[in-house]
Amino acid sequence: MSHVATEHHGKHELRETVPLHAHPRRWLALVIIAVAQLMVVLDATVVNVALPHAKADLGISDANQQWVVTAYTLTFGGLLLLGGRVADYWGRKRTFVVGILGFAIASALGGAAWDETSLFLARALQGVFGALLAPASLALLSVLFVDAKERAKAFGVYGAIAGGGAALGLVLGGVLTEYANWRWCLLVNIPVAVIAIVLAVRIVPESKAQGNTKYDIPGAVLATLGLSLLVYGFTKAGETDARQQLKYGWTSPVTLGLIGVALLLLALFVVVETRIKNPLLPMRVVLQRTRGGAYLASTLIGAGFIGAVFFVSLYFQLVLHYTPLQSGVRTLPISVGVLIAAGLSSGLLPKIGPKPIMATGGVVAAIGMILLTRIGVDTAYATHVLPSMLILGFGLGCTFVPLGNIALVGVDEHDAGAASAVVNASQQVGGSLGTALLNTVAITAATSYYKDHAQAPNPQATQLESMVHGYVTAFWWGSALLVVAAVIVIVFVKAGKDDVPAEGAVHMG
């Protein structure tokens, strides 16, 4: 959901329920909403740095380690569209408060996790409530700030939280893991949530949309279940036994069966969306050439971005033996590159249009990912890793701003909310699928390498070399995904500089 969408949507449906005047405590409300949103953004990356410690503590296998990330991003991305509808019809303030409360409870369950399953379920539950909280936050801001200049400032603050939160999550995760315990990466949400709830109840006004309030529950269930089974199928392909041999692989009946059922459920989702009166995802939004190409590219970019952060964090701690804090700080150049490029692309967008910026960004990001394939067991950070991450981040940053704008090109006012929400959902879903796929690719490559070098005189060194070989293979695959994203933009996106909305969409990079 974007501020353009909610502004149109708000003016159209909220005229009778919300007086269009400035709320006296709107700036204090902005602080509350921004803090709550920061909590959601942080949790997408804060556990990356904590993962090796959580993995050792709870006995999480290599094949299943990606669920710590994907359980969150899957439910968050899969339910984001439904969360926006719930916020509109049930009440934005009520949804916001319930979202924070549920997020805090899920964080407490994750912090108290006793095995891998309990942690994965807690992370999934965090995603569910995050999918309520995020769209409710945006909708509330559109109601609170009715003046165009004030609204621009408010969404600027919100956008900065969205852009910088991921970077802050990496550092905060390192600090908490190193000086407290990995569990505090989740438990830290509880005091923040309590303060936000108390203030929100007293300060934030309620608002809701009028009209048809039916929800597309079948669509939400089919989409989320289909995507989850697809990730599970990818995970099964990389599962190993006690001897570090692959149990199933890509061609086993179990793997193919899971992927087949997942694709069937996703096909059913498309059928349901074309026939239901109140679809979660109107097919007319996705099937328009430019927007459809942008959503597909967004999915692939999400896969590359989240996958890269996932493997870089593992490499730093498991191979180079950095502390969690050192690992978090050394991952920051990706975010620095993103923020620099986002600023530059915002200025270039009205001059040259979204297509050349986004296509160039995809290629530059792929180059950065390819440069990461130079890593080794004792690679120097400054010469091999740092430049690669800066280039990768810069390329990704060039794609984020145009994506948010392309989402609204040629869309009807009625579909504007769904159109821009799909960008956020596609990146989260892409991150889930990409992390699962690349994790399995890495495990398969590492297992094969270890098997081929089993007779080497130093098994410990061979183990590290096999891990690095797996990461390198994953980076090659990730770079391929980013190149394909650039090609899709070149082929499908037809939007020019004149098609860019006057007010760019807030995009959750």
From TrEMBL:
The organism's place on the tree of life at top rank: Bacteria
**Transmembrane region(s):** 27-47, 67-84, 96-114, 120-146, 155-175, 181-203, 215-234, 254-272, 293-316, 356-377, 389-411, 432-450, 470-493
Residues in Major facilitator superfamily (MFS) profile domain copies: 29-497
Cellular compartment(s):
Cell membrane
Q: Which GO terms describe its molecular function?
A: transmembrane transporter activity
Primary localisation category: membrane
Per the record, what is one GO cellular component?
plasma membrane
Decide whether keyword Cell cycle is in the record. Answer: no
Is Acyltransferase found in the keyword set? Answer: no
Q: Name the keywords, alphabetized.
A: Cell membrane, Membrane, Transmembrane, Transmembrane helix, Transport
* Record's bilayer topology term: Multi-pass membrane protein
PANTHER family, per database record: BLR6921 PROTEIN, MAJOR FACILITATOR SUPERFAMILY MULTIDRUG TRANSPORTER MFSC
Which protein are we looking at? MFS transporter
Query: Which organism encodes this protein?
Result: Dactylosporangium siamense
